[in-house]
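Forum: Protein Structure Q&A
Topic: Joint prediction for protein chains with partners

I've read a bunch of threads here and the consensus seems to be that you should model interacting components together rather than docking separate models afterwards. I'd like to see that in practice. Below is the full input, 863 residues plus whatever partners are listed. Could one of the regulars post the assembled result?
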Amino acid sequence: MSNLVSFGKRAGQDFKKNKYKYLIVLPVLAYFLIFHYKPMYGIVIAFQRFRASVGISGSPWIGLENFRRFFNDIYFWRVLRNTFTVSALTIVFSFPMPILLALIINEVQVKWFKKTVQTISYMPHFISMVVVCSIINSFCQTNGILNEMIVFFGGERTNLLSEKEMFYPIYVISDIWQTIGWDSIIYLAALSGIDQEQYEAARVDGAGRLRQIISITLPGLLPTISMLLILRLGSILSVGYEKILLLYQPLTYEVADVISTYVYRKGLVDADFSFSTAVGLFNSVINIVFLLVANKVSKKMGQSGLF
Amino acid sequence: MKRKRISQLLGLVLTFSMVFGMVGCGDQNKANNSEDASVQSNADTEKEEESEKEAEAVSEEITYPLDTTDTLTIWSKNQIKPVASYADYTESPFHTGLAENTGVEVEWTYPAEGAVADQAYNLLLTEDELPDIIFTNVTSGEAEQLINDGVIYDLTEYLPVYAPDYWETIHKDEYVNVLQSLTTDSGKFYGVENFCETEYNVTYVGPVIRQDWLDELGLETPVTMEDWENVLVAFKENYGATLGFFTARLNNIGIGSGTGAYGTFSTNFYVDENGKVQLAQAQQEWKEYMAYLHKWWDMGLIDKDSITMDDAAVRTKVLNGEIGVSFTACSQLTAWVGDAEAEGTGANWVGFDYPRTAAGEPTCMIQARYSGSQGWCAMVTTSCPEDKLITALKWLNYGYTEEGLMYWNYGTEGVSYYLDENGQPQWTELVTEDPDGASNARVKYNGTSGTGISIQLAHMVEIGFAEAAAEAVYKWIDNTEASDHCLPMISMTDEESARYSDLMTSINTYVEETGMKFMTGDVSLDDFDAFVEELNGMGLEEALEIQQAAYDRFME
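Posted by a regular:
Agreed with the consensus. Here's the joint model:
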């Protein structure tokens, strides 16, 4: 009890001291309440057969029927497996790339070169997904640039996007290209926070560049890396549908069809809001489990967690 | 052509009845219609007598512009939309002209830019206050639900009184098959439907070929699948060109008629000789069809990019002479012809018949069973008060009057169209010389380029295409007995359709995926029986039963 009182007291004092800072937080708080918490009651339609014309209050309740439909679908395991695969591949291959880029940029001493590299590497982030995918598509055509290279090295012309073995490499490599620059910003910011005196001390002790990276830079980045990794694991089932939808076709469904594209096709047929909500809820639950586990593991390993 | 004549005469009769009906009205209306009156005076007297009889029969006379202060709001699912270069409908010649002609101010709204239209429609329905009129595509089953939920008016009693021209249209002989689909299962009329004048309007895809190459090689236009193969081989050897297409164009029927199959990669249901609904992909004919595609794929006769190409990619390959035979839509064919002229490639693309199993056999079904109505309709919501409902219906009726029919299709005479020496409407230079291109310009002045609240005239569609495309359509319409196998627009109950779409999502995916794999050889056709078995395991039989029940109800 005394703990609570003192908390209330402390909070009051803190509020008095920082009232303008609290004022600044207010819009963000309102944003989350209005756009993230209030709509949550809409989750109930996952347990209904929702009809837009009669609304949530008028739609009939059907219990777990929507979940049953999802789990019993013959493609359930396939889309689940593909979603995990795509996610895991991007975590393994795309996630470390911005860290590498940040380390390299950090080592470059020539200022104008550093700036140029940074600017160019940000660019793909600003290209719309549709454009990116149409570029990929034309590269992969039988007369596209990739096939010209394959033929040059004695290979055979194929439409790369219709080969299911090629789907993951195409997806992951283009993902790296798209995200490497933008995602490196946060690491560069973290790098600038490392005390320069440590480097001086290391140099006095005779440490080379590589030794400095391993012993000073990386440990300095580790909290940021673990934090971002936890967040990334918390969205493991949320593979966006835009890119896959634009790149896959029936021949590659086997490896490329993920939960979101499956729901998209299902939703398109009959505007089945209840079903997509049920699937979305399922995704969120799995995501939260991953987030909590990753958080726990990170703390166990002596790294900072989210909470 | 004959049918067009008749409908024009009928329209003339309608005009007369309207004009005569106006005699008793105020001076203002008389002045407005003096132009019409001078036109009719040229017509022969025999017709005039007939029209007088008509005039007596019509119960409620409607004169346009209407004398009303009511304004209407309408939400349209991306149809009847002002072209993108206008800020909104207040700048669009068609929309402002319509308001002027009907005397009713209408506020037009559409799904937000970039929104998925179906989703926007469903979200719209969650609103408390709806626009007066909703123009969208609905099945009669959905409409029944909307009436029961109190969202839209049941128009059964209102239509004959307040929309007499529309009422007359739907009771014409040529639409006798469709009348049933304009009502719900319990016989309620729920909206004012868009119509297509003839099967010409609904036929828009089919096979096309480089006629100049055929001539150079001295080959005949291919008829059977063997002929196709010979031509493809010859094109490949002489020009390095292949059969290339956008799969979405080929998906429905494609060239399956060459083996008697009724579908390509997308699930397609048809009615067999015994009146049983069947899935095209589960038949031996389809297996044969896939065997051809696979053989051609292996021989390199099919462009390997066909799987990922869209219309634009196909168009580029066509321009580069990499494609000799294709399967496409009129709009694309029109573009190809334009490209060939602009670049001087000498390519002469023509449409030709769907393949046949043997010379003299029927070729194909038309894209959709021609029924007049396309399922698009304007429904009046209960947010529209009952006294305003009358204005709404009279306004909706306009597109079915002779005057309104011309306006919805061609715009204003002397502005966007003129009548040629045969009395046929033709676009003026304002449209044909428009810097945005004629097909975009058309949409500025008419409302039936897509679907409108009127009848889309076949002539309007025809004069919009390049000559080659306009002729191609006549090749593709082969309304032989094969079209009896086409499923009509059947309606399912709420429960049926929920179960059906549940089953079909997996089946659609499986068929499309496996169909393409049959073509590329990823799955051997020896596994065809296993494929059919798998389909049955997915609940194909139940889906067929649902379709059958709905079909039987329709046929009753």
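Confidence is low (pLDDT under 50) at residues 1-58 of chain B.
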